[in-house]
Design brief:
It holds the Pfam family ECH_2. By secondary structure, the protein is an alpha/beta fold. The protein has four domains: 1-49, no CATH class; 64-157, 3-Layer(aba) Sandwich (Rossmann fold), CATH 3.40.50.720; 163-331, N-(1-d-carboxylethyl)-l-norvaline Dehydrogenase, domain 2 (Orthogonal Bundle); 343-636, Alpha-Beta Complex (2-enoyl-CoA Hydratase, Chain A, domain 1). It contains 30 helices and 16 strands. Helix 13 (299-306) crosses helix 14.
Length: 648
């Protein structure tokens, strides 16, 4: 997207552009971007000190230093120069959105968008509506964050919002432990890293992000919530020294238990308190930790791990020390583990939207998610007030397939029956999608991989954003599509192109997917919801037959429809002088041989019979493919190295 960087003078603009260029250069050096990609990104950014250049922007985000009067002056200038339709946002971490909106002519278009450090690298953004913010502006701001690849979470307009509300007390409690002489810094660092399974401890994190920033954040929280949140004297003294914390030294493991108790107690207390106050949900609280802080699990998952009654006890000690009440979120839970809502269900004007809510895992399908999605689907499908159902994904993508860790764990444990049960549950869900008398529409944005694409294909129509990408990567990780991918794809695009998709694992952009009939419509992201509603009005689709293969894909379809699996694996097919076709065949040679042979068999034999028979065939071959050495090799090496398939 085109971006305008505006500042008060040309010198500061030049400095900002220089910082961006440096960040992109680092990205190239770390192989995050290719040089040409970095150049393209830089070319989309325009620097200016002329605020009239903002006349046509859709979103303006203020990111000046934390001074309320300066921020309000910026908002006044933005209202003067931006169009009435533009969303105005603040990146504040210290002030309430409602307070910053005071004096604005149109506070209904003002919202908080709190990006996390480093915003060019960190996907988390808290979306904070003020008291006057309109629902439309909140929704548009949320959608824009997903469009640019961010993971938004919702926060009420309360001091600290969601993540800083518990993260800053976590930092502060670490300093308090040092101040009270419970342990020294190296010991507290090591204990925190072990307890929370994180890469950096609290003191190193403060050194990286700024000790002064931690103190100011604690001051803001202390003013609102009391002495427990206020910065310790040692933290203030360190800021006065103007130095980072000294981290060197050997940890004393005998003190780990006392540190763990206090650090866990602080996190459990604050996380439960902010849920009590309806600042956030347990789901978004945990997503904030996993995405924004890069913690492996969030506060409520931590409570489940150590036991909820133990968590309540640790939080109770913190509460008693500071004369605070134990949050009801903990006191009412007893010893029952917290249950996480992985599917959001919303009904508006007769249309139910079921949103898969595992954005930090790209909404990967696991047992809990499939079960919750089926329950939610049954409920809205049986609701007479619902006339159509939308399946969507939270965050930057649709669904990145099934949870690979689940497969690896059960192969290692020799519990393949759990994989079969999970896959059968997936088939039951997708069959209900397909048979529903109400239109079921897949709202696809970002990535749709493997099981995610299979889920979309079970819907009556797929409406994709122009930036959507999709693929069947299974044969490249030693397995076959198992949720109808070999069957429903062939009934949309024909057996030749279905074979090409499954055997190559080719990533297909939305425009190409629409050209071959894999998706029904492609629109700009901003038009996605409108197009989905239009598809609902068109009614359900219960039968699919492939249309004519476009001329551009005729050679590919013919070759993959006629060649044997062994010839494709060996590359002994005639591709003529068609370079793209030769590359496609070469890709097949890198896939797992057993998976390729089985996929070809299921696509071709399945197309001769009914869909139900074809789906049953996929399930019948499930144990066979997951029992291969290649399945474990492909799944267990994913993201680490290229698999070495043996053909067995």
């Amino acid at each position: 997207y085109p971006v305008i960087l505006v500042d008060i003078d040309d010198g500061k603009v030049a400095r900002g552009m220089e910082i961006i260029a440096t960040t992109l250069k680092e990205g190239v050096e770390r192989r995050i971007f290719r040089p040409e990609q970095a150049e393209q990104i830089q070319s989309r950014i325009t620097g200016t000190s002329d605020w009239s250049d903002l006349a046509d922007v859709d979103l303006a985000v203020e990111a000046v230093f934390e001074d309320e009067s300066v921020k309000k002056k910026v908002f006044a200038r933005l209202e003067e120069h931006c169009s009435p339709e533009a969303i105005l946002a603040t990146n504040t971490s210290s002030f309430l959105v409602t307070e910053l909106a005071e004096g604005m002519e149109h506070p209904e278009r003002f919202v908080g968008l709190h990006y996390f450090y480093h915003p060019a690298k960190n996907r988390l953004v808290e979306v904070i509506p003020g008291q006057a913010t309109s629902d439309d502006v909140t929704q548009r701001a949320w959608s824009l964050q997903e469009q640019i690849g961010k993971t938004p979470i919702a926060s009420a307009d309360a001091s600290g919002f969601v993540v800083n509300r518990y993260f800053v007390p976590w930092l502060n409690e670490a300093v308090r432990l040092m101040e009270e002489g419970v342990a020294d810094i190296p010991t507290i660092e090591a204990a925190a890293i072990k307890t929370f399974r994180v890469g950096m401890g609290p003191f190193q994190l403060m050194n990286v992000t700024g000790v002064q920033i931690a103190m100011h954040a604690a001051e803001t929280l202390g003013e609102k919530f009391g002495p427990f949140y206020a910065p310790t004297k040692a933290l203030c003294d360190q800021v006065a020294l103007g130095e980072n914390w000294e981290l060197e030294g050997s940890p004393d493991e005998s003190k780990f238990a006392a540190i763990e108790e206090r650090m866990l107690g602080a996190i459990c207390y604050v996380a439960a308190q902010l849920v009590d106050e309806k600042v956030s949900t347990i789901e978004d609280t945990d997503i904030g930790a996993r995405v924004g802080l890069r913690w492996p699990i969030g506060p409520f998952q931590l409570m489940n791990r150590i036991g909820v009654s133990k968590a309540a006890g640790l939080a109770g000690k913190i509460a008693a020390k500071w004369d605070l009440a134990l949050p009801k979120t903990l006191s009412a839970q007893g010893d029952t583990p917290f249950t996480f809502q992985l599917v959001k269900s919303e009904v508006r004007d007769g249309v139910a939207t079921l949103t898969l809510n595992r954005p930090d895992a790209m909404n990967a399908l696991n047992e809990d998610l499939v079960g919750q999605l089926h329950d939610a689907f049954r409920k809205v499908a049986g609701d007479d007030s619902v006339r159509g159902i939308v399946i969507a994904g939270a965050g930057k993508g649709f669904i990145a397939g099934a949870d690979i860790r689940f497969f690896v764990k059960n192969i290692k444990a020799k519990t393949l029956d759990r994989i079969v049960t999970f896959t059968q549950a997936g088939h039951d869900l997708l069959n209900d999608f397909a048979a529903c008398p109400k239109p079921v529409i897949a709202r696809m944005h970002g990535l749709a991989l493997g099981g995610g694409l299979e889920l979309a294909l079970a819907c009556h129509k797929i409406i994709a954003s122009e930036k959507a990408m999709m693929a069947f990567p299974e044969t490249g990780i030693g397995i076959c599509p198992g949720l109808g991918g070999t069957q429903r794809s062939a009934r949309r695009v024909g057996t030749g192109l279905a074979s090409w998709l499954v055997l190559t694992g080719q990533m297909v952009p939305a425009s190409k997917a629409a050209a071959i009939g894999l998706v029904d419509r492609v629109v700009p992201h901003g038009d996605l919801d409108e197009a989905v509603l239009a598809a609902i009005e068109e009614g359900p689709v219960h039968e699919r037959t492939p249309g004519a293969v476009p001329d551009k894909f005729a050679a590919t379809a013919a070759l993959f429809d006629q060649a044997t699996a062994d010839d494709l694996l060996a590359g002994s097919v005639d591709t003529g002088d068609d370079e793209s076709l030769a590359k496609a065949v070469k890709k097949v040679g890198t896939k797992a041989p057993v998976a390729v042979r089985l996929s070809v068999k299921m696509i071709r034999e399945g197309a001769k019979g009914s869909l139900s028979d074809g789906l049953a065939m996929e399930l019948a071959h499930l144990l066979e493919i997951f029992s291969t050495a290649d399945a474990y090799e492909g799944l267990s090496t994913l993201g680490r190295k290229r698999p070495e398939f043996k053909g067995c």
